[in-house]
Amino acid sequence: MAGTGRLRSGAGAGKSQDMVAQDSQKLDVVLAAVERIGDSLERARTSLEAKIDRVTSDLVLLHADHHKLADKTGEIELGVDELVPTTSRLKSEMEETAWEWLESSGLDTSGAAERPASLPRGRRGRTRRARRKGEIWASRVTRAPDLEQSIQERREAIQSAAAISTSPLVSESNCHSQQVTDLLPQTACRS
To answer: Its domain of life (predicted)?
Structure first.
């Protein structure tokens, strides 16, 4: 009996060692899996930190660019504020130059508007371009009455020719006058 008990005890001990070995293998598998998971988490953490560093750097640059843009915008606004009175002053000086050129040229300015009382008098801001601008403007003013007269004469000639061509009292000599033949075809003449 005693021998039988020992055999049973030995068999149980052998079975327990097999279970321990199996459990040890399972534990090794679990530890290996945990180690792989840890490695993956470490790589993810490293990648995330790198991305955070890049985003932080971009934000710093963007913030600096924002300040630069604000400075540039302020400079542009200041330039516009300075440009407006400068443009007004240049326009006034150009008008002044044109009027002074007209007044000193001896040309007929009867067709021109009166010189604005607010326009200053004096010799300042004289440039070749301003003088040329005054000459062009003055020539247009002096040519305007001649051009209007020429248009009026042409209009009257056309109306006269139209009246002659439709009148039953047109004679052959009248029809072939210089004024009519310049404006109407010969077929319009009647004997």
So the answer is: Eukaryota
H or E element, residue 16: helix 2-105
* Average confidence score pLDDT of the chain: 67
Determine the pLDDT at residue 132: 59
Check the CA dihedral 160-162-167-172 and report its sign.
positive
Q: Any idea where the domains of the chain sit in the sequence?
A: 15-85, 125-191
The pLDDT-based confidence of 96 (bands split at 50, 70, 90) is confident
- 56-91: per-residue pLDDT in tens? 888 888 888 888 888 888 888 887 777 878 787 887
Contact between 130 and 94 under an 8 Å Cβ cutoff? The reply is yes
Residue 185's SS3 state is coil
Closest by CA position to 117, among listed 86, 89, 90, 96: 96
Q: Which of 53, 125, 132 is nearest to 92 (CA)?
A: 125
**Alpha-carbon span 181 to 161, nearest angstrom:** 9
Residue 152 pLDDT class (50, 70, 90 cuts) = low
**What would the two tokens of residue 149 be?**
């007269």
Which three-class secondary structure string do you get for 37-60? Answer: HHHHHHHHHHHHHHHHHHHHHHHH
